Structures are given as structure tokens and as C-alpha cells.
Amino acid sequence: MPQKKIAFIFLLLNSIFLNYTFAQKINEVDKIVAKYPKNFATTEKLAERIEKDFNSDYDKARAIYSWMAFNIKYDFNAFLNPPRTQGFSYSTEAEKQRKIKQINDNLIEKTFKSQKAVCEGFTALYQHLTSLVGLKCEIIRGDSKISVRDIGRKTTSSNHAWNMVLIDKKWVLVDVTWGQGYYDSSKGRMVADFSSIYFDTDPDYFFAKHFPDSGSYLGNRLSKEDFLDGPLIYNKTIEFDYKIKSPESGLIEVKRGDKITFEIKNVSKSNQVFYLNKYNKPVKVQNSKEKRGGLEFQILYDANVGEYITIFIDTNSIVSFKIVSK
């Protein structure tokens, strides 16, 4: 899969500007795993430790996610300078499969030993570790929506990978790559910042930011139009279950003087709500009203509003829209 994709660059560069905050609630599984050694001699030793400490399949899958997110870092240098695609020749299908397996095994070993990878390494290692504790796991490749520039994009591209793991007859969505941290453009380096929200993510949130190459999830077709034209949501949106009710589209067609109505669930007047104008200055939302378990408010589209509107709640970026001027 191509690694040098502009979409992920936008994620990294926008993570600071749009105030991504990755610190998450740590559950009991995470607390136990946080005390594990940073290094294990083999993947089998790590799997044995997890099987010893946890009984349920759910906790085992979470423990693998947590250990990887705590210890495996995104390899930004490899992202910028991807190695050449490794080709090989074969004479039979069996030989082809053996060579593919060897390449995958090498990727797993390299990720585990070096403790750094891009998404392909994260997903391969997660699949391998879950298999060692007896769980079925798949690698899914597809598109990622991580920048305001992705709103209204015309086509999808294969620029990311994630996992699905089968737990108690239910497929659980997992993205370990996005759970381990973020890129700090002001410091020019990756920052370790564990996030729990990409383990067992609600599909509605997950597919607002991921679109599989197959275009389907568990046999159900997903809407490419909804993915491409939908608003951009952020980590805190998922963490606090801020459901964006209005506008439904990420593309807002307005003319100067129009008022844009927004409605977000699980927000109240006790929260500070604002947006940034085109001069990057915060503008506090006025005249908001509580409605159906959320908050409704309006923003006047005037000369101070830029190409995008990003709504913030208590300093955290929650949702972005693209303005299409009539």
C-alpha cells in the first residue's frame, strides 16, 4: 500500500492547529498493561503474559491494543521516505503464498523489535498477536478522512489500514495506528499520547473517518458520498459522544448574511462553545439554546468567516465544515 499519502500529512500538520487532545480515560486493562515491560523477547511471550492476566476475549484484544499503543510508535521517517516495494518471482501458487507469508512475518518481526512502524506494521502485528491468543482478526485497507481539505473530496484513495477483530461473535473495529499518539509540528516529532477511542469504536464514528476499499462493512454497503461530503469529526467528538445533528453535510452552501444553524448532542450551556474566524481568532457562540439533549446555535456568515468553520467545545476541536459561497 502506498505510504506517502498527502491525506496523512494533513492529519499530522493539523493535529496541533486544531487542538487534537489525545489523553483518554484509562481502564483497568490499560492500567495492568501499562506495567508490562516495554520489550518482550518474542511475540509469544507477550501473548502468554496477556493470556495469564486476562480471561475474556474482549480484555485480551484490548490489552494487545493498549500494549501496542503504549509502546509502538509511528515511524514518521519511514512515512516520509518509504522503502521500495519488495517484489519477488514465483513459479507456483504455493511458492507465492510462502513468499507473501515470509514478507508479512518479516514486517511483524521488524515492527515488534524496532517498536516503530507505519499503519501496515501496526495492523500486521495486531493481527498476529490476536491470533496468538486465539482470536480471529482481519486487516482492512481504505481511505482516511483526517483534514478539512478532505471535506468534499471527489474520490477515495487507499491510504490507510486498520483491523477488525471477532469477539463474542461480534466484529470490533480497531485502529492502533491512531491510538498511539500524534505529530507535533511545533517540535517536529511524534508525541506519545495514548488514546482509547480507536478500540471498539462506534461504527457511525469510525466510518465518518474511514472508508474501506471494499465499500462495505459486514456485507452492508457504505455511502461513499456521505464519507466524502460529511463533516470532519475529531477525537473529542468520539470520546464525549458529541453527535453532530445539523448541518448533516460537511459542505455548507450559503451567501453572505445567511445564518447557519448548528445542533450538537450532549452539549449544554455550561460548555464553552466557539469557532475560529479567518484571522484565526476565537469567536464565542452567542444566543445558544438547549434542545433535545444538546445545543442549538447559529453563526452568521459574514466577511470574517473563512473557507472552513471548526466548532470548539471547551478548547477542543469537535467538528469542521467547508463553506461553499453561493
Automatic annotation (TrEMBL):
Q: Which GO terms describe its cellular component?
A: cytoplasm
Q: Which domain of life is it from?
A: Bacteria
Instruction: Please give the Pfam families that the UniProt record associates with this protein.
Output: Transglut_core
Where does the Transglutaminase-like domain lie? 111-178
The record, for PANTHER family, names: CYTOKINESIS PROTEIN 3
Descriptive protein name? Transglutaminase superfamily protein
Tell me what organism the protein belongs to: Flavobacterium cutihirudinis
Q: What is the lineage of its organism?
A: Bacteria, Pseudomonadati, Bacteroidota, Flavobacteriia, Flavobacteriales
